Automatic annotation (TrEMBL):
GO terms for biological process: iron ion transmembrane transport. Its main location: membrane. It is a multi-pass membrane protein. The chain crosses the membrane at residues 23-45, 66-88, 108-126, 133-151, 171-191, 212-241, 261-285, 297-314, 320-343, 355-375. InterPro entries: NRAMP_fam. One of its GO terms (molecular function) is cadmium ion transmembrane transporter activity. Keywords: Membrane, Transmembrane, Transmembrane helix. This is Divalent metal cation transporter. GO terms for cellular component: plasma membrane.
Length: 386
């Protein structure tokens, strides 16, 4: 449960909420098709990643170093660069969420929330605390989104029809959703948590597979509920604020109560993203030989560095966020190449496990898509540089 929700809530951050809202306003009910297609592609990626790492009992950086010495540290460097900048944005998001939820000054809200995240990694039972917090906040977000979706009275029939007969198909939207759900460090967050908890080896394939699929489904449910909540407001003819479209939609749906609900969801999404990004980034910078106490101390240090940078910069500059997003676009195809190579050629790393041909073939198809995503990311870096 902890691994599933760590992955899901890591994906559901401030960017996820803003992105889903924007695409719903842009595509209307047709966005349902993009959600379904992205979920299917996400499942193909995550089933391969979780199965290879889970069966091998290795983290992605350890597996990459075994396949090609030094490659794991290249992955770690990319994850660190992206995680550092995005975590500054996540911390900024906790401040905005606390402001909408309780009226706190955003900076004070960010500091208090960061302190809460630090405590999670300082207590003796940090592993159990991590699992319980992300599961609890994940369930809270689903419940609140469900309530607001019901309140906004969305045209569910139109949404269902568009899942199979879309009025409009936008390939860029679909690839953006895939990158935002399993790109960068996100898909590794739950897989590394599973490895750290000892649920590994061929004997646990069924558990690993079930966890990987349910993790994506949980993320999909969150996106679908948010989509329906916004769609109901848009279909009702409401004019949303350009400054904060998501908050405006929740306020239209349920008044001041809806605005507070949005604050809770946004704060919880940002907090769990801080936790997920910090945990996963440090897991890439260490090996399983490092003691949990040292790893937790490093995670606390990472959160505090991000908080200090947030207080100095105010927020992550747009240029840095673009660079970090581009890094995430490179991490997915690079890391996924290692996963598929291990599944195809390194049976010795899988403890003799015979990898399913159908799953490998499905992974290769999605891998081609991740290559395209990586090329787009590199082009983005080139354009920004020039």
């Amino acid at each position: 449960m902890g691994a599933m929700f760590l992955m899901a809530t890591s994906a559901v951050g401030p960017g996820f909420i803003t992105q889903t809202t924007s695409f719903t306003v842009q595509l209307g009910a047709a966005f349902a098709f993009a959600i379904v297609i992205s979920i299917l592609a996400d499942i193909a990626v995550q089933m391969n990643v979780w199965r290879v790492l889970g069966v091998s009992g290795l983290r992605a950086n350890e597996l990459a170093n075994t396949v090609l010495p030094g490659l794991g540290w290249v992955l770690a460097l990319l994850v660190f660069a992206g995680g550092l900048v995005f975590n500054i944005g996540n911390i900024a998001g906790t401040g905005l969420g606390a402001n909408a939820m309780l009226g706190l000054d955003p900076t004070l809200g960010a500091v208090i929330t960061s302190a809460f995240a630090v405590v999670i990694f300082l207590v003796k039972w940090a592993g159990a605390a991590l699992d319980r917090v992300v599961v609890g906040l994940g369930v809270l977000m689903i419940a609140l989104m469900l309530w607001v979706a019901f309140t906004s009275n969305p045209p569910v029939g139109d949404a269902l029809r568009n899942t199979v007969l879309p009025e409009k198909i936008d390939a860029l939207v679909i690839t953006t959703l895939i990158g935002g759900t399993v790109g960068g460090y996100i898909t590794y967050a739950g897989a590394h948590r599973l490895v750290d908890s000892g649920v590994t080896g061929p004997e646990n394939v069924r558990t690993i597979t079930r966890s990987s699929v349910i993790g994506i489904i949980v993320t999909g449910v969150m996106r679908a509920l948010l989509f329906l909540a916004i769609l109901g407001v848009v279909a009702g003819g409401a004019v949303l604020s350009a400054d904060n479209t998501a908050a405006s939609a929740f306020e239209h749906a349920a008044g001041q109560v809806g605005l507070r609900m949005f604050g809770i969801i946004f704060w919880a999404a940002a907090l769990t993203s801080v936790i997920g990004a910090s945990y996963t980034t440090v897991s890439f910078l260490t090996t399983q030989k490092v003691r949990p106490r040292v790893r937790n101390a490093m995670t606390v240090g990472f959160i505090l560095v991000c908080l200090v940078l947030f207080l100095v910069l105010g927020q992550a500059p747009q240029t840095l966020l673009i660079f970090a997003g581009a890094f995430n676009g490179v991490i997915l195809p690079l890391g996924f190449t290692v996963i598929l190579w291990a599944a195809w050629r390194r049976r010795d790393l899988l403890q003799g496990y015979t990898y399913p041909v159908w799953l490998l073939a499905l992974g290769v198809l999605v891998w081609l898509l991740t290559i395209w995503l990586g090329v787009q990311a590199l082009q983005g870096i080139g354009e920004l540089w020039t």
